[in-house]
Each structure stands twice: as C-alpha cells, then as structure tokens.
Amino acid sequence: VNEVTNALLSAVASASPGSDKEDLQDAAESIVSSVGQESVQQLVSTLLERLNDPSPNLKCVTLDVLNAFCSNTECSLTMQLTGLVRAVVSQYMDASQLVHSHACSALSSIINRLEGEMMAPMVTVLRDGVVNLLMDSHGRRVLTTIPGFANAKNLNPLLNLYNHGLLHGSPEARESAITGIGDVSLLSTAGAFGGHAVKEAGLLLRI
C-alpha cells in the first residue's frame, strides 16, 4: 500500500495539467477508495506523511486523494479520525492559498464521517489542533493568525463542527465549541469571519 500510494501521488503531482493528469487523479482516488479495512492505517499514515512535503502541488494532490478516500470508503475510520483532523487543519498554516482550499474540502469530508457520539470529542480535538498551530516547541503561543483563516469559505468545516457541538454536545463539548468559535473569530481576518458573525452570534445567544 505504501509503495503504490507514493507512486500514484508522485505520478499525479508530476503530470502536466490536462486530461492525462485528470485520468491519473481519478485512478489514484479510485484505487485508494477500494482499500480494505486491514490496510486503512497504512494508507492513512502514508497520505499524512506526504502532507509534510514542501511542494504545494503534491500537498494538493494528496489532500484530494484523502478527500476522495474519506468520502467514498466503506471502511471504519474511527481510529484514524483524530490524526486526520489534526494533520489536515495544520495545512491551513501553509503559505499557499490553493493548499488551504484543498485542505478545507478534505476537512469537510473528514467531519462528514463523524456520527453520534464521535462528534463531541472531535470538537475538542479540532480546537486543540488549531491552538497547537500557534505554539512553539516549548508550548508558548507565538503566532496570532492562521493564513488559511483569511478566506471565509475555509472556516466552514470548523464552524460547522463547533456549531454542532454547541447545539447538541455535552457541557464540556459546548465549552470547547464556544472557545473554538472565539479562536476562529480572533485568528481570522475581519472580512473572513464577517460573513459568519451574525449566524454565530445568534447561535451563542441561544445557549
């Protein structure tokens, strides 16, 4: 799985734009989506490792394949969800706006996998993942903005999960959701959060 996945990602990333690249992308997405439960952990580990590559092109390809896998697989991803959320939200720190957009789509697919009792714990995982992006190796908060939060669309998957926790979660999940919404408002630009402000204020007033 590791070798095949790496070969597919490299082939798609190096292909010239056009029908050939699209065909390779479709093939890669189809192959990873057919992986059985016994190979899920290996596949996810391989994909997350490739997100550490400095190439924005390879990151976007990997995020698209990950998006397709999370959307189409019938395998359980319960054991991988925490790592997936943390790794994908970390891509909001990339310098490329294109990477942010692809990360947003992948994060939406991951969050759409959540059901029932899985939702509340993931609110805290997401919030902690965002906060960790701002910290240095000594646990000191050294950053005040997240590049990917400058686009209103990129906030959608985070706010959707926080809003679910706010309306349906335990007291602990609601507290994390409220703090998470506050983080997003502070770490995004006024223009990006402005389109969400009225809705979020209304939800908070209901609690």
- Identify the overall geometry: globular
Helix percentage range: 55-70%
Which spans of ≥5 residues are poorly predicted at pLDDT below 50?
none
Number of helices: 10
Give the percentage of residues in beta strands. Answer: under 5%
> What is the averaged pLDDT score?
94
Characterize the largest beta sheet: strand count, sense, and whether it forms a barrel. none
* Cα-atom radius of gyration: 17 Å
Structural class: mainly alpha
> Would you count the extended β strands for me?
0
For the record, give the distance between the C-alpha atoms at the N and C termini, rounded to a whole number.
Answer: 47 Å
Could you give the order of the helices and strands? HHHHHHHHHH
Task: Provide a descriptive summary of the structure in words.
The protein is mostly helical. It is built from ten helices and no strands. The protein has helices spanning 2-14, 19-33, 40-50, 56-72, 81-89, 97-112, 119-132, 156-168, 171-187, 190-206. Helix 1 (2-14) runs antiparallel to helix 2 (19-33), helix 5 (81-89) runs parallel beside helix 7 and helix 7 crosses helix 8 (156-168). The model has no long low-confidence stretch (mean pLDDT 94).
